[in-house]
User: What shape does this take?
Amino acid sequence: AGTGMATARLHARGADVIAVEPGEGMAAEFRRRLPGVPVVRGSGNALPLADHTADLLTCAQAWHWTDPARAVPEAVRVLRPGGALALWWNTSALDVPWIAEAAARAGRHFGLDIAAEKRNVDARVADPTDRLGLLRRDLRWSRRVPLDTHLANLGSHSLFLTQGAERSAAYLAEERRHVLAVFPDGIVEEAYDVTLLFATTAPTTAPTTATPPAPTA
Assistant: This one.
Protein backbone atom coordinates (compact mmCIF):
# COMPACT_ATOMS: atom_id res chain seq x y z
CA ALA A 1 0.00 0.00 0.00
CA GLY A 2 2.95 2.36 0.40
CA THR A 3 1.86 5.74 1.71
CA GLY A 4 -1.72 5.16 0.58
CA MET A 5 -2.05 7.04 -2.70
CA ALA A 6 -4.23 4.38 -4.35
CA THR A 7 -5.87 3.41 -1.06
CA ALA A 8 -7.11 6.97 -0.51
CA ARG A 9 -8.90 6.96 -3.86
CA LEU A 10 -10.51 3.57 -3.28
CA HIS A 11 -11.61 4.67 0.18
CA ALA A 12 -13.02 7.94 -1.19
CA ARG A 13 -15.18 5.93 -3.60
CA GLY A 14 -16.78 4.09 -0.69
CA ALA A 15 -14.71 0.89 -0.60
CA ASP A 16 -14.12 -0.84 2.74
CA VAL A 17 -10.33 -1.06 2.48
CA ILE A 18 -7.67 -2.96 4.43
CA ALA A 19 -4.15 -1.92 3.41
CA VAL A 20 -1.13 -4.24 3.49
CA GLU A 21 2.38 -2.74 3.72
CA PRO A 22 5.68 -4.46 4.67
CA GLY A 23 7.76 -1.35 5.46
CA GLU A 24 7.68 0.32 8.87
CA GLY A 25 8.36 3.80 7.49
CA MET A 26 5.76 3.55 4.75
CA ALA A 27 3.19 2.17 7.20
CA ALA A 28 3.83 5.07 9.58
CA GLU A 29 3.31 7.61 6.79
CA PHE A 30 0.17 5.73 5.72
CA ARG A 31 -1.28 6.01 9.24
CA ARG A 32 -0.47 9.72 9.31
CA ARG A 33 -2.21 10.38 5.98
CA LEU A 34 -5.14 7.97 6.40
CA PRO A 35 -5.80 7.56 10.13
CA GLY A 36 -9.25 6.09 9.51
CA VAL A 37 -8.10 3.22 7.28
CA PRO A 38 -6.62 0.04 8.81
CA VAL A 39 -3.14 -0.98 7.66
CA VAL A 40 -1.47 -4.27 8.55
CA ARG A 41 2.11 -5.37 8.04
CA GLY A 42 2.62 -7.99 5.36
CA SER A 43 3.40 -8.47 1.68
CA GLY A 44 1.79 -9.84 -1.45
CA ASN A 45 3.75 -13.06 -0.98
CA ALA A 46 2.12 -13.72 2.42
CA LEU A 47 -1.06 -11.73 2.90
CA PRO A 48 -2.18 -11.43 6.55
CA LEU A 49 -5.82 -11.96 5.52
CA ALA A 50 -8.25 -14.83 5.97
CA ASP A 51 -9.27 -17.14 3.14
CA HIS A 52 -11.93 -15.91 0.70
CA THR A 53 -12.62 -12.58 2.43
CA ALA A 54 -11.92 -9.96 -0.28
CA ASP A 55 -14.01 -8.93 -3.28
CA LEU A 56 -11.12 -7.00 -4.84
CA LEU A 57 -7.36 -7.25 -4.37
CA THR A 58 -5.29 -4.43 -5.83
CA CYS A 59 -1.57 -3.86 -6.19
CA ALA A 60 -0.62 -0.39 -7.39
CA GLN A 61 2.94 0.11 -8.60
CA ALA A 62 4.23 -2.79 -6.49
CA TRP A 63 3.59 -6.19 -8.09
CA HIS A 64 7.17 -6.27 -9.42
CA TRP A 65 8.32 -6.53 -5.78
CA THR A 66 6.44 -9.80 -5.30
CA ASP A 67 7.28 -13.35 -6.33
CA PRO A 68 4.35 -14.16 -8.66
CA ALA A 69 4.76 -17.88 -7.97
CA ARG A 70 3.75 -17.09 -4.38
CA ALA A 71 1.65 -13.95 -4.84
CA VAL A 72 -0.80 -15.40 -7.39
CA PRO A 73 -1.81 -18.35 -5.16
CA GLU A 74 -2.12 -15.91 -2.25
CA ALA A 75 -4.48 -13.75 -4.30
CA VAL A 76 -6.59 -16.80 -5.17
CA ARG A 77 -6.68 -17.80 -1.51
CA VAL A 78 -7.79 -14.38 -0.25
CA LEU A 79 -10.34 -13.55 -2.96
CA ARG A 80 -13.94 -14.67 -2.72
CA PRO A 81 -15.31 -16.73 -5.63
CA GLY A 82 -15.84 -14.28 -8.48
CA GLY A 83 -13.50 -11.76 -6.84
CA ALA A 84 -11.08 -9.66 -8.88
CA LEU A 85 -7.35 -9.00 -8.92
CA ALA A 86 -6.23 -5.65 -10.39
CA LEU A 87 -2.55 -4.73 -10.87
CA TRP A 88 -1.27 -1.50 -12.36
CA TRP A 89 1.89 0.47 -13.02
CA ASN A 90 2.47 4.08 -14.04
CA THR A 91 5.56 4.72 -16.14
CA SER A 92 6.70 7.98 -17.67
CA ALA A 93 5.67 8.53 -21.30
CA LEU A 94 9.17 8.54 -22.77
CA ASP A 95 7.97 9.48 -26.25
CA VAL A 96 7.17 12.98 -24.91
CA PRO A 97 10.37 14.98 -25.60
CA TRP A 98 10.71 16.89 -22.30
CA ILE A 99 10.01 13.70 -20.31
CA ALA A 100 12.61 11.77 -22.30
CA GLU A 101 15.15 14.53 -21.60
CA ALA A 102 14.28 14.47 -17.88
CA ALA A 103 14.69 10.67 -17.79
CA ALA A 104 18.08 10.97 -19.49
CA ARG A 105 19.19 13.52 -16.87
CA ALA A 106 18.05 11.22 -14.05
CA GLY A 107 19.86 8.32 -15.67
CA ARG A 108 23.11 10.24 -15.91
CA HIS A 109 22.83 11.52 -12.34
CA PHE A 110 22.07 8.13 -10.78
CA GLY A 111 23.89 5.89 -13.28
CA LEU A 112 20.75 4.16 -14.56
CA ASP A 113 19.11 3.50 -17.91
CA ILE A 114 15.56 4.72 -17.27
CA ALA A 115 14.29 3.41 -20.62
CA ALA A 116 15.69 -0.04 -19.82
CA GLU A 117 14.03 0.07 -16.41
CA LYS A 118 10.71 0.74 -18.11
CA ARG A 119 11.26 -2.14 -20.52
CA ASN A 120 12.03 -4.43 -17.59
CA VAL A 121 8.69 -3.56 -15.99
CA ASP A 122 6.92 -4.09 -19.32
CA ALA A 123 8.58 -7.49 -19.72
CA ARG A 124 7.51 -8.54 -16.22
CA VAL A 125 3.95 -7.43 -16.96
CA ALA A 126 3.84 -9.11 -20.35
CA ASP A 127 4.88 -12.54 -19.03
CA PRO A 128 3.36 -12.99 -15.55
CA THR A 129 3.26 -16.46 -14.01
CA ASP A 130 -0.51 -16.34 -13.73
CA ARG A 131 -3.15 -18.96 -13.24
CA LEU A 132 -5.95 -16.42 -13.58
CA GLY A 133 -5.71 -15.47 -17.26
CA LEU A 134 -4.79 -11.85 -16.60
CA LEU A 135 -6.02 -9.41 -19.23
CA ARG A 136 -3.81 -6.41 -20.12
CA ARG A 137 -4.78 -2.86 -21.03
CA ASP A 138 -2.39 0.04 -21.73
CA LEU A 139 -3.65 3.60 -21.32
CA ARG A 140 -2.13 7.08 -21.67
CA TRP A 141 -3.13 9.77 -19.23
CA SER A 142 -1.83 13.18 -18.20
CA ARG A 143 -2.26 15.80 -15.52
CA ARG A 144 -1.26 19.42 -14.92
CA VAL A 145 0.34 20.05 -11.54
CA PRO A 146 2.40 22.80 -9.87
CA LEU A 147 6.16 22.42 -10.19
CA ASP A 148 6.53 21.72 -6.44
CA THR A 149 4.03 18.84 -6.74
CA HIS A 150 5.94 17.44 -9.71
CA LEU A 151 9.24 17.56 -7.83
CA ALA A 152 7.71 16.11 -4.65
CA ASN A 153 6.36 13.22 -6.69
CA LEU A 154 9.80 12.61 -8.19
CA GLY A 155 11.37 12.71 -4.75
CA SER A 156 8.97 10.03 -3.47
CA HIS A 157 10.17 7.43 -5.99
CA SER A 158 12.27 4.58 -4.63
CA LEU A 159 15.12 5.67 -6.95
CA PHE A 160 15.54 8.84 -4.91
CA LEU A 161 14.79 7.31 -1.52
CA THR A 162 17.70 4.91 -1.93
CA GLN A 163 20.24 7.55 -2.99
CA GLY A 164 20.42 9.59 0.20
CA ALA A 165 18.95 12.99 1.01
CA GLU A 166 21.91 15.12 -0.11
CA ARG A 167 22.32 13.53 -3.52
CA SER A 168 18.59 13.55 -4.21
CA ALA A 169 18.24 17.19 -3.12
CA ALA A 170 21.04 18.22 -5.49
CA TYR A 171 19.29 16.51 -8.40
CA LEU A 172 15.87 18.00 -7.60
CA ALA A 173 17.30 21.53 -7.32
CA GLU A 174 18.90 21.21 -10.77
CA GLU A 175 15.76 19.58 -12.18
CA ARG A 176 13.67 22.54 -11.04
CA ARG A 177 15.70 24.79 -13.34
CA HIS A 178 15.32 22.46 -16.33
CA VAL A 179 11.56 22.00 -15.90
CA LEU A 180 10.99 25.75 -15.49
CA ALA A 181 12.66 26.26 -18.86
CA VAL A 182 9.91 24.09 -20.42
CA PHE A 183 7.03 25.31 -18.23
CA PRO A 184 7.88 28.90 -17.25
CA ASP A 185 4.46 29.41 -15.61
CA GLY A 186 5.33 26.68 -13.09
CA ILE A 187 2.49 24.34 -14.16
CA VAL A 188 3.88 21.01 -15.38
CA GLU A 189 2.01 18.75 -17.78
CA GLU A 190 3.01 15.22 -16.82
CA ALA A 191 2.18 12.29 -19.12
CA TYR A 192 2.12 8.65 -18.09
CA ASP A 193 1.52 5.22 -19.56
CA VAL A 194 -0.44 2.99 -17.20
CA THR A 195 -0.47 -0.78 -17.65
CA LEU A 196 -3.43 -2.55 -16.06
CA LEU A 197 -3.72 -6.29 -15.50
CA PHE A 198 -7.12 -7.62 -14.42
CA ALA A 199 -8.60 -11.04 -13.73
CA THR A 200 -11.44 -12.63 -11.80
CA THR A 201 -11.55 -15.88 -9.90
CA ALA A 202 -14.06 -18.58 -10.81
CA PRO A 203 -17.52 -17.95 -9.37
CA THR A 204 -19.18 -20.47 -7.11
CA THR A 205 -21.74 -22.62 -8.87
CA ALA A 206 -24.68 -24.15 -7.06
CA PRO A 207 -24.65 -27.96 -6.88
CA THR A 208 -27.02 -29.66 -9.27
CA THR A 209 -28.71 -33.02 -9.13
CA ALA A 210 -27.21 -35.27 -11.76
CA THR A 211 -29.62 -36.95 -14.19
CA PRO A 212 -28.94 -40.68 -14.32
CA PRO A 213 -27.98 -41.97 -17.75
CA ALA A 214 -30.64 -43.70 -19.82
CA PRO A 215 -30.43 -47.49 -19.78
CA THR A 216 -28.80 -49.07 -22.76
CA ALA A 217 -29.87 -52.22 -24.57
In short: The helical segments are 5-12, 24-33, 68-78, 97-110, 114-126, 147-156, 158-161, 165-182. The first helix runs from residue 5 to 12. Residues 206-217 have pLDDT under 50 and may be disordered.
